[in-house]
């Protein structure tokens, strides 16, 4: 009698025309046990995948929820259309052995990767699973991300990363650091090819912070997400400064002070809802046009409300966002970096169903002046729109560049040149609308006809000049004013003379620098007509490896 678990080999012979050697089957049968069936193996597979989804520690999910955080799979379900997610390499395990890692080899290795749909369009996603090694990145973990980025590039579809990790896996040493390099290289290769969106849902420290910085958009959630190169303990040890994690790199810090984050939210649900909204405004890749979504908002709707929104006096302020709400479809737009450099507004919206990128001076903050941060913010937004075939509409109400020693010493020249470079290099349809004042170099930089705007429109309140009438009169007529019996009266006369001669609303139009002076109520319909005309625009740049923009 054989051993209880011994396996015997039996030979079965079939009859019929193919009987003989070709018809023999070898079967492995465990003595005393029925043969395994496909049902058995599938059941085993389902059990393994269920364990991988639940995580190796049964209490880890509760701890994640206690921190006010969702799990990786819960986040993916909120992001993607219901039932659309296909996971890749769910059973991947690391092969590291140092410091006890050979005894801890959970499936997925701390990152969930795959693809699904958002509004029925393919989107790739990877999500760190903080329940496994704190979401720390090791070689196998990174290999999954590398594969996903390669797949997204090949498929021509956006990538969303849901970041909640503790950085490099220390036990794997330099291998983990090199794995980050593979992610960074792919981020750069995909830049301007497919949209890349980073959603910060936990800590992101050290070199891990550079992947989000290389992507197109960064979303953060208050209270649970932080980004910094060196943490509070290191900062205190080196500089003596004491600061909390949120105070050093929280959502409000990066949304309002550093400009690293484009959006900040109070909870994960609203954050991921706006990621879906953003994806609906972007094309899948740089070879496609952004998706059209028609609404019931008439293309020729008159903007009666703008007549009372914008004061004629150029020194009075107003909120440009109210104007954008009148112009864009259904008054809806998604403002980018709302809390940083708020003296310029950058937003994505639609006109007659077609996505557009809007750059607009904000007169209710610093009079809408351009400074270092506003120039940087607008320049990168212009480059993003140009990369992804999104037409640009620029609303101009700018008194110039911000004067001051600090601005000059910090490089307003090179930073302002970034915006000039971005507009001049952009080949998408570009329309300029001058609402009121447009003075000095800022007039040129805000997408004037001279740097390549396809169409320039102006309201009858426009004032385009080297500088304001007051400043111009003080320079040109300085001696005459000083010698007058009544200097103040003479100064006022010269201001009026300069304004009527060189700053009247039709001066630029008479010289072909503005294509038309329009009734403000017709702004929406004029933009829709111009964009329809420009939809097939093709503009080729000179052959070159790449330009060398100012830094």
TrEMBL record:
Residue span, CoA carboxyltransferase N-terminal domain: 38-294
Provenance organism: Amycolatopsis australiensis
Which GO MF terms are attached to this record? propionyl-CoA carboxylase activity; transferase activity
Q: Which InterPro entries does its entry note?
A: AccD/PCCB, AcCoA_carboxyl_beta, ClpP/crotonase-like_dom_sf, COA_CT_C, COA_CT_N
Q: Which classification does the entry list for the species?
A: Bacteria, Bacillati, Actinomycetota, Actinomycetes, Pseudonocardiales
> Mind listing the UniProt keywords for this protein, alphabetically?
Transferase
Q: Which residues does the UniProt record annotate as the domain CoA carboxyltransferase C-terminal?
A: 298-547
Name of one Pfam family that matches: Carboxyl_trans
Q: Which PROSITE patterns match?
A: COA_CT_CTER, COA_CT_NTER
Q: What is this protein called?
A: Acetyl-CoA carboxylase, carboxyltransferase component
Gene Ontology CC terms, in alphabetical order: acetyl-CoA carboxylase complex
Region named Disordered: 1-22
Query: What spans are recorded as compositionally biased (Polar residues)?
Result: 7-16
Q: Which domain of life is it from?
A: Bacteria
């Amino acid at each position: 009698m054989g051993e209880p678990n011994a396996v015997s080999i039996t030979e079965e012979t079939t009859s019929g025309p193919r009987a003989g050697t070709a018809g023999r089957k070898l079967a492995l049968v465990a003595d005393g046990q029925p043969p395994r069936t496909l049902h058995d193996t599938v059941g085993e597979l389902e059990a393994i995948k269920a364990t991988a989804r639940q995580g190796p520690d049964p209490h880890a999910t509760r701890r994640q929820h206690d921190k006010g955080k969702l799990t990786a799979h819960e986040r993916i379900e909120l992001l993607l259309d219901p039932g659309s997610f296909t996971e890749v390499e769910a059973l991947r395990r690391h092969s590291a052995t140092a410091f006890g890692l050979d005894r801890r080899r959970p499936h997925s290795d701390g990152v969930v990767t795959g693809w699904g749909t958002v509004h029925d369009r393919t989107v790739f996603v990877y999500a760190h699973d903080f329940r496994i090694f704190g979401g720390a990145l090791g070689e196998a973990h990174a290999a999954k991300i590398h594969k996903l980025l390669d797949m997204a590039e090949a498929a021509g579809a956006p990538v969303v990363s849901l970041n909640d990790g503790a950085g490099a896996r220390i036990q794997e040493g330099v291998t983990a650091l090199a794995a980050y390099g593979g992610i960074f290289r792919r981020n750069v290769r995909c830049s301007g090819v497919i949209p890349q969106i980073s959603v910060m849902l936990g800590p992101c420290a050290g070199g891990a912070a550079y992947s989000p910085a290389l992507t197109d958009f960064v979303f953060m959630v208050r209270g649970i997400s932080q980004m910094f190169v060196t943490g509070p303990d290191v900062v205190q040890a080196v500089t003596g400064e004491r600061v909390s994690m949120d105070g050093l790199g929280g959502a409000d810090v990066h949304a309002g002070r550093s400009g690293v984050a484009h959006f900040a939210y109070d909870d994960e649900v609203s954050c991921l809802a706006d990621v879906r909204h953003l994806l609906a405004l972007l094309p899948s890749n740089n070879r496609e046009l952004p998706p059209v979504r028609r609404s019931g908002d008439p293309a020729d709707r008159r903007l009666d409300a703008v007549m009372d929104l914008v004061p004629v006096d150029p020194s009075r302020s107003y909120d440009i966002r109210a104007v954008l709400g009148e112009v864009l479809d259904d008054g809806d737009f998604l403002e980018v970096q709302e809390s940083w450099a708020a003296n310029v507004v950058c937003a994505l919206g639609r006109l007659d169903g077609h996505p557009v990128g809007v750059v607009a001076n904000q007169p209710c903050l610093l009079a809408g002046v351009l400074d270092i941060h506003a120039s940087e913010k607008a320049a990168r937004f212009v480059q993003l729109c140009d990369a992804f075939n999104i037409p640009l509409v620029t609303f101009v109400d700018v008194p110039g560049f911000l004067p001051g020693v600090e601005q000059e010493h910090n490089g307003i020249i090179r930073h302002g040149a970034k915006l000039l470079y971005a507009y001049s290099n952009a080949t998408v349809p570009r329309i300029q609308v001058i609402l009121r004042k447009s003075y000095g170099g800022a007039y040129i930089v805000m997408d004037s006809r001279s740097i390549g705007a396809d169409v320039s429109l102006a309201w009858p309140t426009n004032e385009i000049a080297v500088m304001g009438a007051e400043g111009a009169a003080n320079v040109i007529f300085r001696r005459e004013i000083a010698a007058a019996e009544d200097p103040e009266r003479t100064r006022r006369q010269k201001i009026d003379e300069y304004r009527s001669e060189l700053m009247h609303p039709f001066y630029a139009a008479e010289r072909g620098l503005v294509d038309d002076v329009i009734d403000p109520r017709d702004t929406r319909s004029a933009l829709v007509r111009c964009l329809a005309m420009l939809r097939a625009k093709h503009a080729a740049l000179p052959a070159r490896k790449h330009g060398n923009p100012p830094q």
